[in-house]
């Protein structure tokens, strides 16, 4: 038995949950917040049999694609007063961070 913990962007979460459920997986959704851009993330938990891990990973890879996004980042503009001006920066967002853990015991009550 495995526990998959998948951290995905909010905009990918609904489609991923639907894809996983259509493929016969039970999913628990947790709302979380990312640290880098303080963007909304969703953490999904899946308790599955070892042989179903590749199918779950295929669903995640199919839905959660990396993409570029322009964000405004404050940047100091010289001097002692250090005035902060918004500065557009292109960053890569999306994709998924996935952990696959061994589960010693699983009970569904």
Describe this structure as you would to a colleague.
A hairpin with a 5-residue loop joins strand 4 (66-77) and strand 5 (83-94). The protein has helices at residues 10-22, 53-63, and strands at residues 2-9, 28-33, 40-48, 66-77, 83-94, 96-102. The longest helix has 13 residues, at 10-22. With 109 residues, it is an alpha+beta fold. The model has no long low-confidence stretch (mean pLDDT 83). Helix 1 (10-22) crosses helix 2 (53-63). The protein has a 4-stranded antiparallel sheet. Strands 4-5 form a two-stranded antiparallel sheet.
Give unreliable regions as ranges.
none
Question: Helical segment tally?
Answer: 2
Q: Report the portion of residues in β strands.
A: over 45%
Distance between the termini: 17 Å
Computed CA radius of gyration, to the nearest angstrom: 18 Å
Side by side, the strands of the main sheet go 2-3-1-6
The secondary-structure element order is EHEEHEEE
What is the topology?
Layout: E1 2-9, H1 10-22, E2 28-33, E3 40-48, H2 53-63, E4 66-77, E5 83-94, E6 96-102
Antiparallel strand pairs: 1-3, 1-6, 2-3, 4-5
Keywords:
109 residues, alpha+beta, 50% strand
In short:
This protein has 109 residues and is of the alpha+beta class.
């Amino acid at each position: 038995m495995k526990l998959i913990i998948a951290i995905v962007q909010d905009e990918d979460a609904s489609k991923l949950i639907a894809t996983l459920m259509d493929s016969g997986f039970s999913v628990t959704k947790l709302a979380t917040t990312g640290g880098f851009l303080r963007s909304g993330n969703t953490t999904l938990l899946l308790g599955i049999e070892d042989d179903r891990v590749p199918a779950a990973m295929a669903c995640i890879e199919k839905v959660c694609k990396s993409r570029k996004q322009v964000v405004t980042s404050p940047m100091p503009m010289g001097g002692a007063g250090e005035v902060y001006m918004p500065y557009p920066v292109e960053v890569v967002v999306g994709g998924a961070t996935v952990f696959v853990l061994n589960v010693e015991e699983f009970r569904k009550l």
